[in-house]
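Thread: Glutathione S-transferase omega, structure

OP (GT): Posting the sequence first so everyone is looking at the same thing. Length is 237 residues per the record. Can we get the structure tokens written out before standup tomorrow? I want them in the notebook alongside the other entries.
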Amino acid sequence: MDKCFANGSAAPGPVPKGHIRLFSMRFCPYAQRARLVLHAKGIKHEIINIHLKDKPDWFLEKNPLGLVPTLETEAGEVLYESPITCDYLDEVYPQNKLLPQSPFEKAQQKMMLEHYNKVVPHFYKVVMAKENDDKAALVAELKEKLVKLNEKLGTKKSVFFGGNSITMIDYMMWPWFERLEAYGVIDLLNSTPELKHWYDCMSKDPSVIACSHSTDSHKAFFKSVFTDGKPNYDYGL
């Protein structure tokens, strides 16, 4: 079911046999990380979308933090936080491995993710900027971060951040890049050629395509959040 579950809604039944359940929100980039991994690995799953401003009590019983993504297994085991859920999926479902086998390379990806997580707030600063904010300065800060990512990718001499095929770190980074045009800063990629090539290649990935929303949809959702103050989690349905 696509439409989100709000407080007062009936709790879903048991996780379907042979599936794993993902509690998500259609426009959440963190939940999109888990959806990308589920799709890339071909894992049978059910998605339950949550109204993040009016969360059902039964969801808070499963995850007291009320965060998405949250996973629930057939056995009733519950996990949350996007890197934890994605690593779990890659470990439990052996097909189409996304994390490197080498402990050192795996650690490198986790270190890179820690670095990238410090870049993410700069995307939000740009999209949340008010009229009296110095938006040009915020965009310049983001550009500086993207230039450093571009340099990191350039030193690897590969198309993707983990080599010449998509790995976990690429999917962990992608959701915010999908929104670059909606943020109004897609032109920043003109200053980062390696990152632009990565962006173009990621845009063609079947899992990225399957788990994406259009720029117009992202813009409409941002408007509902930042202008109207009433997030429309069901936009487009």
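GT: Both are above now. Quick notes for whoever picks this up: The two ends are 11 Å apart (CA to CA). The first strand starts at residue 20 and ends at 24.
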